[in-house]
Amino acid sequence: MKKLFVSVSVLFLFSMVASAQNFRLNGYAQYVFDDQVEAYSGVAYFEGKVQGGLRWGVGAEYMTHPAYGIELMYLRQDTKAPITYYNGGIGGARTTDIDIAINWLTIGGNRYFRKPGGKVEGFFGGNLGAAFIGGKAENGESDDVTKFAWGIKGGATIWATEKVGIKLQADLMSAVQGVGGGLYFGTGGAGAGVSTYSTALQFGLGGGITFALGQ
After folding, report:
1. 180, β-bridge pairs
2. What is the CATH number of domain 2-213?
3. pLDDT averaged over 10-residue windows placed end to end, the chain, 215 residues
4. What is the distance of C-alpha 144 from the center of its chain?
5. Which of 48, 75, 127, 139 has a beta carbon 3.0–4.6 Å from 83's, enabling a disulfide?
């Protein structure tokens, strides 16, 4: 059901762009840095990291004003998380690698700054939505979770022409558990079936390309 929801949302994103004026189509490619994680679950303690790597995606942005836009955005990252599990000194430490897929689906606003006739357009923005996170341990056990997500971003777009721009961007994304960031780990056999939530914040650097559609 979650995969279907993401697929339908992405199709809606493209159909919305194709049928409307004053839109921008944004393509994203960023490097996400390693994120150290740790958590407690009863007497158990987990530590490790979500490895850095490529995060890519697309966004459909409706320009309500030359300086303001509302964007529906989809991002995806596939990575690994080496996790070490300690069970109160019983049996020593155990380590497993977890394959993780993170799908972000958010909506938010962007504020733009551009001098008349200028080629460089600065921006900042924020977004809210959901993170669909799936994990698979070395023993084949898997699990997934959906979490409330938020993000902030800033950067600049360099317009090569009136319709095509190169985007440079830094952002911070989080999937929220309670009042903090949260990323789900099912430890499978390595953790005797114990699972936990662990704080996570993802910092990304990169950019992409922007196409101005309509008038």
Report:
1. 177
2. 2.40.160.20
3. 55 54 90 81 70 93 92 93 72 76 94 92 95 78 80 96 95 71 48 49 92 81
4. 15
5. 48
